[in-house]
Amino acid sequence: MIGSMKHVLALGVALALATAAVACSDPVAPAPATPVAATISETFSGTLTIGGSNLHQFAVTQVGGLKVTLDNVTPSAAVLLSVGTPSTATGACAPLSGLTTVAGPSVQISGTATVTGNFCVSVADVGNLVESVTYTISVLHS
Fold it and tell me: Which of 30, 66, 111, 117 has its C-alpha lying 20 to 30 A from 96's C-alpha?
């Protein structure tokens, strides 16, 4: 009788350990979303002052392509063009990618938005403006 109690107790401990192991195992991660082509086009324009910076927000609704083009700066000047996420704390665009560039027809920033949500594009003086400039930025996203 004592032998069978030991077996029942051993079986109970084994079942408890097995249950705990299953309950604590890592779940299987979901498959990543397949990026879609960028099909939403937005155009932003404004006036950039000496020492200034401007941001424009846009919403990415699907994981997918992201392309930013500085189409025009008048009068011509090199500016800092960045794409990032809007900071609720500072009101600024927290850059994820950026570069100093002049306007042109080619895409200056290209990549994949791996999450959905609010993004922003920022244009800023890099210290070379001698007067205010107007600009136009095109953003193609998903």
Answer: 30
Residue with the larger pLDDT of the pair 32 and 131 = 131
Bridge partners, 140 (sequence order): 41, 67
Domains of the chain by residue range: 40-141
Query: Does the N-terminal peptide bond of residue 95 adopt cis geometry, omega within 30 degrees of 0?
Result: no
pLDDT above 70 for 88 = yes
What CA–CA distance (Å, rounded) separates 138 from 109?
11
**CA–CA dist 82, 109 (Å, integer):** 8
pLDDT tens-digit profile of 5-51? Answer: 333 333 333 334 344 444 455 677 777 778 899 999 999 999 999 99
Confirm or reject CATH 2.60.120.380 for domain 40-141, answering yes or no.
yes
Distance of CA 47 to the CA centre of its chain: 25
* pTM of the predicted protein model: 0.76
At 112, phi and psi to the nearest 5? -125, 125
Residue 111 identity: G
For residue 45 the two structure tokens come to: 């324009």
Centre a 10 Å sphere on the Cβ of residue 95 and count the other Cβ atoms it contains.
16
> In DSSP terms, which residues pair with 120 in a beta bridge?
57, 84
